[in-house]
Amino acid sequence: MRVAIAGAGAVGRSIAGELLENGHEVLLVDKAPTAISVERVPMAEWLLADACEITSLDEAALQRCNVVIAATGDDKVNLVVSLLAKTEYGVPRVVARVNNPKNEWLFNESWGVDVAVSTPRLMSALVEEAVSVGDLVRLMRFSHGDANLVELTLPPESALAGTQISEVEWPVDTSLVTIIRGTRVLTPTPEETLEPGDELLFVAAQAREEQLEDLLSVRREGAPKG
């Protein structure tokens, strides 16, 4: 997979390193000469250019990329890069970094963004995830389909504790993708039994989040919420 990363700062370089370790082809693009540190990520391709310029993106051969990551520290730049990648080059997957949470509402498919990653929001969500049991925590938003990656730790009093996955009537537009049980990462199967303390990760439509939380929480059908 070929990935272009706009922004060769600490965030961009870190992402590049991870992708290279996983066997992907990576191009780092930055307009600041001081950011071009080939020795820090020697296996990557490097391009000194302004990622907001069509001529630069032509030089980067963006049309050959499977993924573009807009990872600069400037939200305006990340939005422009995302829009150009999607509309001018038809890049299948565009991921954008959100630096200011107040701008998060802009990072959607109208600007070419498939996945928006807000570092402040993600850190907040991870704190919530670490201390919350029985409450739904939103970890990441996907622009297409208005879907979110959400997590809930199953409380001991949940009505679903001890229930097989195949027996659960999940809300529509939700999908259980992973169960984290202690140090194990489990792929959900129909025969798997939900256990108290399981961390359940779902991709779910935002409109279904409350219904999903009601299903997994300690509340029984007909009981008042909250």
Automatic annotation (TrEMBL):
Question: Which residue range or ranges hold the RCK N-terminal domain?
Answer: 1-117
Please tell me whether the keyword Signal is annotated for this protein.
no
Keyword match Transport: yes
Record's keyword terms, sorted: Ion transport, NAD, Potassium, Potassium transport, Transport
Report the residue ranges that make up the RCK C-terminal domain in this protein: 137-218
InterPro entries, alphabetically? K_uptake_TrkA, NAD(P)-bd_dom_sf, RCK_C, RCK_C_sf, RCK_N, Trk_Ktr_HKT_K-transport
Domain of life from the UniProt record: Bacteria
What Pfam families does this protein map onto?
TrkA_C, TrkA_N
Q: State the PANTHER family in the record.
A: POTASSIUM CHANNEL PROTEIN 2-RELATED-RELATED (PTHR43833), TRK SYSTEM POTASSIUM UPTAKE PROTEIN TRKA (PTHR43833:SF5)
| Protein name in the entry | Trk system potassium uptake protein TrkA
**Organism the protein comes from:** Streptomyces cremeus
